[in-house]
Design a protein that fits this description.
This protein has about 350 residues and is of the alpha+beta class. The protein has nine helices and 20 strands.
């Protein structure tokens, strides 16, 4: 039995359909992420799990029990908000133990749990400090400690890393992964940041306009997206209009305006004459000079139009003869060189016959 089950949940706000018959199962001990653009329904779903909102129809079950009549404060669920919601007039110790002090816990129990939390969250020496005296990462750890001190069965995190700078965000991501692994508590994490979701999660639900587009492991979402929306939302991808010229069990032959014919992996549902989109990741595209890509079934000539240097990698935008632009991502691994190619270099681009995916209309 799944720890958390969402059964046919629908929620409307006036004419807006925020959640449309959502069904989802989350297993005990999972780091599960709800991913999608703003307004897709992910925060609405999180608020319903927490009890801050109720569905118009459907059920939310925790350990097999319908939560419909259980108020937020009675649910074995805690939420870490984007703002952390720390009490500014309370010290770190007072913030962390607030829920225990409001409950029926003895002073010795409170002290023991506080000591364990301080050690676990690496907050030694910070117990007497106030929130304004803490760094962003320390505030994050205090918020987590406060949510975990009552040992909930489920922890909800609502865009809780969004306020951190890039370096600190990476550090806290590692902390979250380690913490979740150590505690074995189920985490349900909401974010619109694709790289964050891919780095943290056991499974990800991609949402769009109140619906679940795909629920899968990060590598499957990225490598085998189910539809055009998932392909375009999770990571970067080249998307080219195409039509099926030939469909066989082993391959597709596609016609792409401005490029001519290309070979793509077979798709069981693709038929001759269908129109759609051919999608290929920038890291699957190779760039060369002269004839070094001649062995690839898909290869074309063009000029480097722009270079986006990102430190360890660079993104090269190549414009082909008929105006089609293809992005390629290459590591900056050549000794003594920051770039492999320069703007206006004439190059060959190409990719393997088994790379990319075709989505028909």
């Amino acid at each position: 039995m799944a720890q958390l089950e969402i059964r046919n949940v629908t929620r409307r706000f006036g004419d807006l359909l925020a959640l449309d018959d959502v069904c989802l199962k989350i297993e005990t001990g999972e780091f599960f992420t709800l991913l999608g653009p703003s307004g897709c329904g992910k925060t609405t779903l999180l608020r319903m799990i927490a009890g801050f909102d109720a569905p118009d129809s459907g059920q939310i079950l925790l350990d097999g029990k319908d939560l419909a009549d259980t108020p937020p404060e009675k649910r074995p669920v805690h939420t870490v908000f984007q703002s952390y919601a720390l009490f500014p007039h309370m010290t770190v110790a007072e913030n962390i133990t607030f829920a225990l002090r409001m409950g029926h816990f003895t002073q010795s129990e409170i002290s023991a749990r506080l000591h364990a939390s301080i050690e676990q969250m690496r907050l030694t020496g910070k117990t007497c400090k106030y929130p304004h005296e803490l760094s962003g990462g320390e505030k994050q750890r205090v918020a987590l400690a406060r949510s975990l001190i009552k040992r909930p069965g489920l922890l909800l995190l609502d865009e809780s890393l969004a306020a951190l700078d890039a370096r600190l965000r990476e550090e806290v991501q590692v902390e979250l992964i380690n913490l979740q692994s150590e505690l074995g508590i189920t985490f349900v994490f909401v974010t619109h940041a694709q790289t964050e979701a891919l780095a943290l999660s056991h499974r990800i639900a991609v949402m769009n306009q109140g619906r679940l587009e795909q629920v899968d492991e990060p590598s499957k979402l990225y490598g085998f997206p189910r539809n055009r929306f998932v392909a375009g939302f999770v990571g970067h991808i080249n998307q080219l209009g195409a039509q099926v010229l030939e469909s066989t069990p082993g391959r597709l032959r596609l016609s792409v305006p401005g490029m001519g014919d290309i070979v793509a992996p077979a798709q069981a549902s693709s038929l001759t004459g269908q129109a759609g989109i051919f999608s290929i990741r920038p890291e699957q595209v190779r760039i060369g000079i002269h004839d070094e890509l001649a062995g690839l079934k898909n290869h074309f000539s063009g000029k480097i139009q722009s270079v986006l240097y990102q430190g360890d990698v660079s993104v090269y935008r190549t414009k082909l003869a008929d105006g089609v632009i293809i992005e390629a991502l290459l590591p900056n691994s050549a000794p003594g060189r920051a770039r492999l190619f320069e703007i206006d270099d004439t190059v060959k681009i190409g990719w393997r016959h088994d790379a990319g995916i075709f989505f028909h209309d």
